Each structure stands twice: as C-alpha cells, then as structure tokens.
Amino acid sequence: MSYRNEVVTVFGGSGFIGRHLIRRLAKSGAIVRVVSRHPNQANFLKTAGSVGQIVPMAADVTDDQSVARAIQGSDTVINLIGALYETAPWSFQTVHVDAPTRIARIAAANGVRKLVHVSAIGADTRSASAYARSKAAGEQAVLQAFPGATIIRPSIVFGPEDAFFNKFASMAQIAPALPLIGGSTKFQPVYVGDLADAITAAVHQDSAAGKTFELGGPRVYTFKELMELMLHEIRRKHRLLVPVPFNIAEKLGAFCEKIPLIAPPLTRDQVELLKTDNVASPSTPGFKELGMTELASCEVILPTYLSRFIVGGRNATLTRDVGKFNKYPSAR
C-alpha cells in the first residue's frame, strides 16, 4: 500500500517514539497529523517532510469532540499515548484506558481503515502493577471498539531521547553508586528506530489487522547487565551497583511519590514492575512476522548517544583506547 495522499493521525506523536515514527511516515509521502496537548512542541518535526506535510494539532483526549476533530478524514490512526507514573488528573485509567477507548471508538465511527495501538510487554489484567493492568484493560477496550486494531507491545525502548539509559547515565556522573532494584529481572530492549519501523510495517500490512505483536530486541539482558553496559559506555565502570531489596525499594518509591513539582525518580508501581521479566513471548508474533530480522543491539546504539556523559566527550578517550592497540608508534 502506498502512503501517497494518505492521512495518518498520530496521538502522542511529539514524544520519544513519535518523533522517530513521524520521520518514517513522512518519507513514505503521508500527510501526518501530530496530535498532542501542546502542538507547539511538535513544530520541530515539520522539517521531517515537505511544506504542509507535517501538521501539529491540539487535542484533548478526554473530550469526544476534540478527538473527533483530530481524526476526521484520517485513513490511519496511531496511538502512542502513555504514562510511566500517575499525576493528577492523568491517572493510568485516563491515559491507558479511557483515552485509547475514545480514540478507537471515534476512529471506527469515522471509517478509519487502520488503527495501531502501542501498549507494552507485561500488559496483564492479573498483574499486581496498576500500570500493567491498565495497559491490558486499554488493549481490550481498543479491540472491542475497533476489532481490526493492531496492538504493539514493545519491551523497554531505548534511543537518543530515552528516559532509561540517559537517566541512569546522568545519575552515574555524580553518584558514587547506583541502586540496583531487581538486578536479575530480564529485559529485551528494543531500539526506537526498529520500533518505529515495526509500527510503519504494521500499517502497511493488511495481515497485521486484529493481531498483537510483542517486540523485543536481539538480546535479553538482566537489569544488572544493562547497568554494567551503560557504565562501561560512559567510562564509569568503577561505580558501585548496590542491590536494594524490593521491600526497601517500595518504601523509597513511596517517599519519592510525595516529592512535589518533580517527576518521581521511582514509584511503588515501578518497583512492582521490576519483579517481573519484560521479555517478548516466543508464542506471540513479533518483529519476524512484520518482516524485520535485522535489529539494532544496545552495544551498537548506546555509543552513539551516551558519549555525552563521558568526561571530555568520546574524543577524549579515543587516543587512550587506540593507543592500547598501536603496535607501531609514530617515528620521532
């Protein structure tokens, strides 16, 4: 299917995943509506396409009429809206259930041909985590309103703007030690560029309609291994990783939740998530079923953006690193 003259509406398109997805949609010739609460935050994406191709739009996902205005005339709708923690009035119920339900219902009523809803690995109505339960409830509501919707469940997503490796690398610059909560918990990090390609492929493929895909990268790591890899890349290998028991972490999360005016660095619900592996199920369709077999690994991508956390930058370490392998010193 050609995207030429197609109208694709992306809710939450100015965020981390959205900025990579928008560029790919624009290359295929689609007219892309980037919907968010603050459309000015999407203005930087206009350069990803030709004049008038990328259209930032404001919408209130709690209001039917506002969502309908954004969707009207769309061929495809993609929902990327999500939250890692709750803040008034944006509860998990509002963000992960009510908003996707509204988008799916209005998309169906407007004759939208394709709907892609991005959820998360670990979505489970039986989970002890409110985040995971709300993600599962959102999936069910979307499919009920729009049975042909495609559900995308990625593992932890990494890339230049991520809130995972960047956060811990920033902490490692000043802290002599990093807390290690659930060090043996397994993750299958997926590069944001691969995820954006997969979402685009899901829109292209009619066979993806009504299916759920779990997307994990090429390798499974423990949380401890991810921290060790990050520290290696920013030349902080001697930072200590201090194991923190879950019961202590829960108390710490409860304290962090009460700190006003800042995003909590840890919540009790996030601690609950760390008790369960975040790995794609081999019995669920994944990248392969979307036609993707070559995936980027953390080892390849992390050096491209974590170098800013190296004292003096990556160039400051090149001489040292190269010198170790230089058998033939320059002639004097």
TrEMBL record:
It holds the Pfam family Epimerase. InterPro entries: ComplexI_NDUFA9_subunit, Epimerase_deHydtase, NAD(P)-bd_dom_sf. Gene3D superfamilies: NAD(P)-binding Rossmann-like Domain. Residues 8-216 form the NAD-dependent epimerase/dehydratase domain. PANTHER family: NADH DEHYDROGENASE [UBIQUINONE] 1 ALPHA SUBCOMPLEX SUBUNIT 9, MITOCHONDRIAL, NADH-UBIQUINONE OXIDOREDUCTASE 39 KDA SUBUNIT-RELATED. This is NADH dehydrogenase. It comes from Azospirillum rugosum.
